[in-house]
Specification:
- The protein has about 210 residues and is α/β, with parallel strands linked by helices.
- The chain has helices spanning about 20-30, 45, 55-75, 105-115, 150-160, 185-190, 195-205, and strands spanning about 10-15, 30-35, 85-95, 95-100, 120-130, 140-145, 180-185.
- It has one domain (about 10-205): Maf protein, CATH 3.90.950.10.
- The chain has seven helices and seven strands.
- Strands 1, 2, 3, 4, 5, 6 and 7 form a seven-stranded mixed β-sheet that branches.
- Helix 4 (about 105-115) packs across helix 5.
- The longest helix is centred in the N-terminal third of the chain and has 23 residues, at about 55-75.
- The chain is globular, with a radius of gyration of 18 Å.
- It comes from Paraburkholderia humisilvae.
Length: about 210
């Protein structure tokens, strides 16, 4: 009598435009296809903060909402069924949420708050399996200590354009590395996709890699 086996999947849908997350999936050896928001979707509305909401609650809520939106997008597309991976990253200090800077001036203001102090980088990861069932989302918390950096140095960094599009106005894998004295936590989590937690979720969703 033949034995039954669970179906596995050769790729995951990645619902993120982040080149860092794509790079990190390649590092794991995971094949992916992009599942990006349609032009008619209001992706920014999902990232709106609630009054009094903690950064930890915020990043988990946004990640789950993005996963729900991605699943609806896949169902409407008619593409082949496969698990979906979603992540969301935020930076927090003094109970404030530091999202993506509007421009270079906003980036300098954010970085000035971080200079000479510790802050937290929070990355939530969610996976929806191929049948549409969400796996429990996970949260990776890391602490980062910035050196006491001059405003001129921060302005030069901001003028490079690197802070734009990044939570907290910096990328740990880029030029901002010169400001970072110490990291306690997950380097890949600070980049935007904690590999240990992500690998466990993808295996639970039966992704082959």
């Amino acid at each position: 009598m033949p034995t039954s086996s669970k179906v596995s999947y050769p790729f995951v849908y990645l619902a993120s435009q982040s080149p860092r997350r794509q790079e990190l999936l390649r590092q794991l050896g995971v094949r992916y296809e992009l599942l990006l928001p349609r032009p008619d979707e209001d992706a920014e509305a999902l990232e709106a903060e609630f009054p009094g909401e903690s950064a930890h609650a915020y990043v988990m809520r946004v990640c789950v909402l993005k996963a729900q939106a991605a699943r609806a997008r896949l169902e409407a597309s008619g593409h082949a069924a496969a698990p979906i991976l979603v992540a969301d990253t935020t930076v927090t200090i003094d109970d404030a949420i530091l999202g993506k800077p509007r421009d270079a001036s906003d980036a300098v203001a954010m970085l000035s708050r971080l200079a000479g102090r510790d802050h937290e980088v929070l990355t939530a990861v969610a996976v929806v399996d191929a049948s549409g069932v969400p796996l429990p989302a996970t949260l990776c918390t890391s602490r980062v200590r910035f050196a006491a950096v001059t405003r001129d140095a921060l302005a030069r960094y901001a003028s490079s354009g690197e802070p734009l599009g990044k939570a907290g106005a910096y990328g740990v894998q880029g030029r901002a590395a010169e400001f970072i004295e110490h990291i306690d936590g997950s380097y890949s989590g600070i980049m935007g996709l904690p590999l240990f937690e992500t690998a466990a979720l993808l295996r639970a969703a039966r992704i082959d890699f």
